[in-house]
Structures are given as structure tokens and as C-alpha cells.
Amino acid sequence: MSTVKQEYDVKKHFLELFRENRSVIDSGSAPLMNKQREGAIEEFERLGIPSQKSEKYRYADINGVFNPNLSKSFGVQKVSFNIHDIFECDIPDLDTNLILLVNGRYFNKEEPLRELQGGIITGSLARASKDMPQIVEKYYNSAASTEDDSLVALNTAFAQDGVFIYLPKDAVLEKPLQIVNIMIHETDLMAQHRNLFIAEENSSAKVVVCDHTLSPNKFLTNGVTEIYAASNSNFDLSKIQNEHNGSAQLSHTFLEQESESTVFTNTVSLHGGFVRNNMFVRLNGEGSENHTLGLYLADKTQYIDNYVKIDHASPGCSSRQLFKGVMDDQASGSFNGTIVARKDAQKTNAYQANNNILLTDDARINSRPQLEIYADDVKCSHGSTTGQLDENAMFYMRSRGIPEREARLLLMYAFAYEVVNQIHVKPLRLRIDDLVNKRLRGELSRCNNCAMNCE
Fold this sequence. Notes:
By secondary structure, the protein is of the alpha/beta class. It is built from ten helices and 22 strands.
């Protein structure tokens, strides 16, 4: 007797899951978010899970990360623990306003929104949708495109909560906000959170996001973050991905910038079995400035993929992309970056670079820097390098008595430092500098400072 193995139909699974649990999903969120769901699930049904036939997902097997055994939770979460018992941020001088996100939900959703100095508001997005509906409705799901990416549509259909940050006009946040995004569960789990960050005119803030897994189960995160930077605002986002190798993370960030705004984003991927980072930036206002940076360190069979699109929609704007990767063992990854200068975006100044080091013959990286220029008066450049460590530099150091292993580490550390040095929260920069050093030495083999000892 022969047996036929049924293939897991991801699209069908989520469509059925949505119809069967719609009332529970709605009850755990806010009407403002709920009214977006029907249109989003229709877009997901039309598009399906991205395949490698799509240029955007050419190198990423997205379908493969959707494990049929992943549970989904739409009701009240029963996660009870003392965060300080199992996780402690080990950066002594990092003085922040702490926000905790557990399995895609604000840890205490019933907690009132917090008001910080200058009228800055933080808290649960679901709570903000009820307490500040006019502000949330103005921005929610405006930048994120459900028509072009089914994973964003999937998030819009299912997301119930996330983090809300609102910086009113002229507000300056002296102490950074730190979002600790934790995955912890007794079974394999998928979570979908939604974040909304709004910086009004002349406001300024630094935000740090730390992704961690605190139990040895398999996890999948499909998260969407929307950021709005109004005129003359200054927003700085540092993201540290440090999950175990049984995790998969699909991250989508949408950024809208108005005139004379400045935004820095820096993503450091230290650990994770499968990581896909999508970054979409639109420079809407004249004189806006964007810096998008990333560092990824992968070994074993890890896969790290970065997709970046910078859309220069107004004249006189500048952007800088810098992504660096170190690939070891059988690790693989890709960088797909695009700069678009529209017809009216004269005086555009844009730079893009992707540099990679392969430490073994089995490591792989695919790099596709691209320019789409429709304006006449622009300064745009792009480039990519992939290779091994500089043999001349190795010879120079070894001839001066430095052992081969130490010379290799020094070269890799110097290669990574250009990105790490752009983290603008100094205590965090020093700690990440140390973590990168340990990671390159092979001393950071699991999520840092987690008592669970996951492999």
C-alpha cells in the first residue's frame, strides 16, 4: 500500500484560519484595526505566499518557513513570568524607557497609555486605537502596502496589537525607548505584531528594538512597523536581532519622511535561523535625509535576507544605504537594494553599498544593488563587493607577529565596525561592539544573556 503525503497549502490554511477565528481576532483588537482586515485578507487571497518567481523574493524560500505545526493564539494570552527572572538587559549604562512585547502583544494591554516628558505617548497600539482614534486612523495602514506584498496583507488581516509611539510637535525624548520583543511559549508559535511610530514636526527620539527568543521552541514572526517622520523631525531606530536558530523572522518596515526630516535606521542581525528584513522608505519632502544601515553575521545553515527600497519622491533629498555581511560555514543570504529617483526628484544625492566576506567555500551571498533614475540632475552611486579576507592585510599582520586566527578576527572586526559605529546610543553601541566581537570569535553561540540555554 502506498501513502500520499499531502502538501501543506499555506494560503488555504490562513484563509480558513481567518474565517474560523474572525470574531475572536476582532474581539482582541480595536474597531479601527478590524475594519482593515477584510480588504487585507482579500489581497492575501489574490497574491498568495510570495514565491521565488517574484524578483523581490527571488532568493528567499518564504513558503518553507510556514511550518504547519506552528500554533496561533488570538485570545487572551496566558503568559506569566517575571521578565527579570529570565532576561536582563546587560548594558549597565543603558538608561531607557522600557516597553515589553510578548508573542506579538503588548505585555499588559489593559495598562493605560503612558505619557512621558513633552506629552510623548507610548503603549499598546490596540489601546491607542481606542483612546486616540483620530491620530491612529490618520496614519495606520497608510504607508504599508497590502497590494504589493501578501505578507503585509497577512499581518494586516491578523495583527491584534503592537507598540504605539507618538511624539507631538517639538517634543524631544531625552531617554531612549527600548522595545524588548520576546517570543516564549510551551509549543511552536507564530506571532504577528503591528507597530506605529509617529514623529510630528520638530520632534526627536531614539528607539531601540531588541528581538529575543526565551524558550527552545520553533517560532515565526511576521511583523510590520510604520514610521512617520514629519517636517524637521529626527528619528533614530536601532534594531538588534538575536533569536535562536529555530526562529524565523519576517520584518517589514515602512518609513515616510517629510521635508528636512532626518532618519537613521540600523539593523544588526546576530542570530536567527531565517531572517528577512524588508525596508521601504519614501522621501516625500524636499531636503529630507535618510540613512539605512545593516550588519548581518551568519554561520551554520542560517539565512539572512535584506531588501531595501529608497524612493526619492521630492527634490533635494539624500539617502545612504550601507549593508555588510560576514558569512561562515554553510550560511547564505542576499541583499536586494533599489534607489528610485522620480522625474521631479532633481538634486537627488543617493549612495548604496553592499559588502560581504565569505569565510568558507560553502557560504553564499546574492547581491543586487540597483538604480532607477528618471531625473536629470542627480548624484547616485551603487556598488557591491563579495570576497574573502584581504590576503595582503593578512600577510602584513602575520609578518608582525600576529597569529593567523587573531589576524582574521581583527580584519572581520574592522570590516563590521563601520556599521556598528553608526549606532547613536553610546552604551548600546559599546555593547553591540562587544557582542559582534564575541560573535566573530564563536563565543556567542546562542541568544545572549538568556537563562533558557536554547541551542
